[in-house]
Amino acid sequence: MAGRPYTSLLLLLSLLLLITFSDIAEATKLRPSDCKPKCTYRCSATSHKKPCMFFCLKCCSKCLCVPPGTYGNKQVCPCYNNWKTKEGGPKCP
């Protein structure tokens, strides 16, 4: 009986980890055909939609990944996050 609370706690922690990493799995398993809808959402909050879409689609086609949300979360997609311009700034929105 003493092990039962630990089993419940382990099950709860496993469930929380699964929920936490589900966004990562969603973001990293794209096909090229998935890029346009993901980039449309990614660029939906910016006032510079045309350049955002251009670079997002370029990054998605190379990396097959678009971070979740409209801003940030780039750590989910290392390729997307690490692709830089000649000046060293981020290439992907």
From TrEMBL:
Keywords: Signal. Coiled coil: none annotated. Residues 1-27 form the signal peptide. It comes from the Eukaryota. Belongs to the GASA family. This is Protein RSI-1. It comes from Castanea mollissima.
